[in-house]
Amino acid sequence: MSEFLDLEAQDGVRMTWNVLPGTKQDAAACVIPAAAIYTPLKPIPDIPLLPYAPLRCRICRAVLSPFSVVDYTAKIWGCPFCFQRNHFPQHYFSISEENLPAELFPQYSTIEYASVADTSPIAPPVFMFVVDTCMIEEEIGYLKSALAQAVELLPEKALVGLITFGTFVQVHELGFGILPKSYVFKGTKEVTKEQILDQMGFFSGKKKPSVGVIAGSRDGLPAESISRFLLPASECEFVLNSVIEELQKDPWPVPADLRSSRCTGAALSVAAAILGVCVPGSGARIMAFVGGPSTEGPGAIVSKTLTDPIRSHKDLDKGSVPLFDKAVKFYEGLSKQLVHQGHVLDLFACALDQVGVAEMKVAIERTGGIVVLAESFGHAVFKDSLLRIFQSGEHDLGLCFNGIFEVNCSKDLKIQGILGPCASLEKKGPLCSDMVVGQGSTTAWKMCGLDRKTSLCLVFDIARQGGPEALGPPASNQFYFQFLTYYQHHDGRMRLRVSTLSRRWVAGPGNVEELTAGFDQEAAAAVMARLVSFKMENEDDFDPIRWLDRSLIRLCSKFGDYQKENPSSFTLSPRLSIFPQFIFNLRRSQFVQVFNNSPDETAYFRMVLDRESVASAVVMIQPSLIAYSFQSAAEPVLLDVTAIAVDRILLLDSYFTVVVFHGSSIAQWRNAGYHNQPEHAAFAQLLKAPRDDADVIIKERFPVPRLVICDQYGSQVIIIFAQHELLHFDSCVMQSMFFCLYYFFQARFLLAKLNPSVTYNSSNPPQPGGDVIFTDDVSFEVFMDHLRRLAVQ
């Protein structure tokens, strides 16, 4: 496994098969597709930044790399992708084996080029805040406080604008500082660029061009008109803070039996139109802060009548959601507009109810946007995540804009598509596969927004056919890949990052051991999670559990070591031994089991999965569990209910949630205050250690995970209370009951992730001080027994 981590550290790539099946037939037999998870902007130490343009192949446009064959005498280099021989230009004529340019150094398989020809002024980033005002005063207060902190952290030269919405959409004119001034639009319909130009007076007192597209100052739009709505943060900080401070709840009355009139879609349409008019092609982000469901105009997800429930997964399966398809169609159109403009849609959804994340998913994901889901604008998940976007330092996001991602590969490989935050540029070519996954039928994609952790999953198709000619000489048994990422660096300049890699292929019946040696089970689990999520959303009547089980059985049948019809003889190589465990936990994860999750939550989980690296995806699929006790130092333990003990603290990291779980004895000692006594300093340190480790996890992660602190047996008092009528209790007892309810429901975050090896109907009792899980799910041991029996048939 360490060699795969070394390859990732060098190029930012993890592949399912690092020794690839050489023919289409071999690839089909391997079950797990040939795929790569690539992080285009992964921080790589000592990566060279070359101040000149890359040297490209005349035929396929691949960039010169360490895998190019160089004739130093004739000053010619051969392209490893199309085998074209290219002459070096004049400024490379001093090249020799002792005088190599950086792009030919073997250790620089990933390299960056800075654009030196671009002499245009640096375009500052643009942030358009779109703020929901249909909330209670307390929530608006939390949001105003968070926005005020974010404004202080904005780069001085960054352009900023503000739109608020409720029943109507208000565009605030920040350039008019004498008194608050805004333009109001109806929330019942979309707004076009032409309407924006006419109704907001962009050509007030000046002649409007009669022909051509009006977009930005370079196309005739007066700069002073743009500066009325988009101003540098340093110039409008006072006005912006004043407007934010005076924000109030939407004044339109709401009857008791109706929902608020919230025109989220219309507000986003106005924001996209303004940015398209003022700053097309510049790095810009629409940051939407939404506190409830859209009920008005385009993109509405539910009616205003409170008796009409918001759609659930069951409603989506039945097709009884007339507003869902309409809203998705609207956001698909909005995503095309934003991708064309090069702009990003970010969503901060903070409400106990659903807000429409499932409908907005297409626009957020295709523009490379950020999504944060929390219960309240006062919750640390929202507040800390928002500040993390603008903070600079060791764990900053390194936001970049206007990316274009291209792929070159050997002619025997085809590209099925990409699963991740990007949009197809529909650049068709011979490398496009007939089978399409995600954003396919292209070799170029637009990435309007990307950061240091943005990861793409590329799925390949082995096009090489089997036969005697499939076994070539060893020198030709290489597949080459080249990933090119053009992007606007956060310093404002354009850059090109080029990653070139090679993987060996094997063909024929005796290739099992070599394929097994190159199998990356963590990358395979991450790819399978993205694939099953994609299939669940796009294929009718798809059974994810059956698909995962059949894939695992076929994989184990091919690569397992066993005697026919003898399950006890079944063994797996260490290279594959953990993969069944990943699939077992994936079957139980929030990506597959949508029960008890809303469509918004499911969409949120899948969006985060589709943009994260292999390491992060593995934590989402199979959380890590660390135990703390007096008997030993902190140590990883099995994700099993048997890990619970009365004298142990557990730290569970499930990516979205970090849980600190205290055994019952630990909780009693803590409640007695022993950790405050000098003679029990060791106990104080034991309590502190998991909290410190949890803080480290939270500090490094985005979106910021939820921290849950709970105790074992936190529900016992509830059982006693349930036998009495609540009306007989005074306020103190009610508070105690709420406290116990809180700890019980917090403990579910841990119990839901553990392997149920001991349940309420198990024949084996729990160990003293242990716990049981009330579930009918099969345990991992039963799962493996079934797998062995089916794999050897």
From TrEMBL:
Alphabetically ordered keywords of this record: Cytoplasm, Cytoplasmic vesicle, Endoplasmic reticulum, ER-Golgi transport, Golgi apparatus, Membrane, Metal-binding, Protein transport, Transport, Zinc
Give its localization: Cytoplasmic vesicle, COPII-coated vesicle membrane; Endoplasmic reticulum membrane; Golgi apparatus membrane
Query: Can you list the GO cellular component terms from the UniProt entry?
Result: COPII vesicle coat; endoplasmic reticulum exit site; endoplasmic reticulum membrane; Golgi membrane
Q: Which GO terms describe its biological process?
A: COPII-coated vesicle cargo loading; intracellular protein transport
Q: Where is the Gelsolin-like domain?
A: 634-716
Q: Which GO terms describe its molecular function?
A: GTPase activator activity; zinc ion binding
Positions of the Sec23/Sec24 trunk domain:
123-390
According to the entry, every stretch annotated as the Zinc finger Sec23/Sec24-type domain falls at 54-92
Per the database record, which ranges form the Sec23/Sec24 helical domain? 520-618
| Family annotation (SUPFAM superfamilies) | beta-sandwich domain of Sec23/24, C-terminal, gelsolin-like domain of Sec23/24, Helical domain of Sec23/24, vWA-like, Zn-finger domain of Sec23/24
Show where the Sec23/Sec24 beta-sandwich domain sits.
401-506
Function noted in UniProt: Component of the coat protein complex II (COPII) which promotes the formation of transport vesicles from the endoplasmic reticulum (ER). The coat has two main functions, the physical deformation of the endoplasmic reticulum membrane into vesicles and the selection of cargo molecules.
What family is it from? Belongs to the SEC23/SEC24 family. SEC23 subfamily.
Q: What is this protein called?
A: Protein transport protein SEC23
Say which species the protein is native to. Answer: Rhynchospora tenuis
